[in-house]
Amino acid sequence: MFPIRGDGALVLAVVFGAIFGALLHRGRVLDYNVIVNQLRLRDFTVLKVMLTAIIVGGIGVFILVDAGAARFALRDANLLAVSLGAAIFGVGMVLYGYCPGTGLAATATGSLHAGVGVVGMLVGAVLYALSFDWVRTHILPVGALGKVTLMDVTGIPAAWIFAGLVVIAISLFAWAERSGR
Amino acid sequence: MSASLADSPARAARQGIDLAPYLAGAGIGVLSWIVFVVVATPIGITTSLSAVAGGATALFTGPELVAQNSYWARHPLRLDYGTLFLVGTFLGALASALLSRRFRFEAVPRVWAERFGPSPARRFVSAFLGGVLTMYGARLANGCTSGNGISQGLQLALVGWVFLAVMFVSGVITAWLIFGGRRA
Predict the structure, then answer these.
(1) What is the pLDDT of residues B121-153, one digit of tens each?
(2) Which domain holds residue A106?
(3) What angle in degrees, to the nearest 10, is found between the helix axes of A100-108 and B46-61?
């Protein structure tokens, strides 16, 4: 029965996307002020959303994979590319005030500057496509480790990593709530 | 999502904690369970958004040049799951904003105006440049906050956690340089 492919999946794409967009809005992360104040360490809403999503999602997905109901969909760890890309992304996120998903969704809530940034993102994609041949030969192969997990790197079982993440997240959330962030 | 989750200031005040971010995060987590099982396609934005950029480019250059590009040859624009997920994300945010009566046009947000003044032009230039960098970085990293941070992060993939750590450090340093470290 699962996974569903073809036309049925296309309908589900809109449904799942809509749920995602609505959750981002409900979680208040389509607000420029909230995102920028996270990076200024004054408002921890973004980390509350992300860490909760990762922990809840991760524990469930690991159980589903163990039960044979789902498969992992891991991506390659190209260490130089992901490090450089994330560093550029961090700078861009402060100037824009959004990441790609929240920028697109915030445009739908009336944020005109988010819409301007969506145009910028399309230009950024063009620049990447133009530079792809160079990136592919010079950047992507450096530190290319393949589909590596934290378990592979550290030797620690997934259950213990999630337990550690839960402790870190709860401590961080408790501190954030106490200090009004 | 019920309207009471995020829109109950009275309840939030009673509890002293705004539960909306945790509930939204848990909701995204549960949505991840569903998409992993039902469509075997994790949540992500920029792979499809860059295909859309290829389609938009083809309007100006004609489809041949785009098809010849080695990146877009791998990621052609199709009306596929990923592209329609973007449409859904847009529509879901729009519906949520309208239903909660929080749809409003915004050219210059408060935190930006406090630092850089009320000029929309200045804000738009920054948003445009930020958009360019964000997308270029996301493609170089092979994923954004959603596709890399959440979807790879929840699988405990190394790429997801390297992305999260470097992005966060880079963002905090940049914010400190641009906005300053002191409280106003």
Answers:
(1) 999 999 999 999 999 999 999 999 999 999 999
(2) 76-146
(3) 70
Same domain, A87 and A50: no
**Residue A13, helix vs strand vs coil:** helix
Residues A154 and A168 in one domain: yes
Please give, rounded to a whole number of angstroms, the shortest distance from the CA of A109 to a CA of chain B: 5
Distance from CA of B55 to the nearest CA of A (A): 10
Same domain, A68 and A153: yes
Put simply, whether the predicted model's pTM sits higher than 0.90 gets the answer yes
**Could B155 and A61 be called an inter-chain contact, meaning their C-beta atoms sit closer than 8 Å?**
yes
CA dihedral A133, A123, B40, B154 (to 10 degrees): 90
Please check whether residue A172 lies inside any domain of the structure.
yes
A76/B37 Cβ within 8 A:
no
Please report residues of B whose CB lies closer than 8 A to that of A78.
Answer: 142, 159
Do residues A141 and A81 share a domain?
A: yes
Q: What is the overall mean pLDDT for chain B?
A: 92
What percentage of residues in chain B have a pLDDT greater than 70? Answer: 89
Flag if B29 and A4 touch (Cβ within 8 Å): no
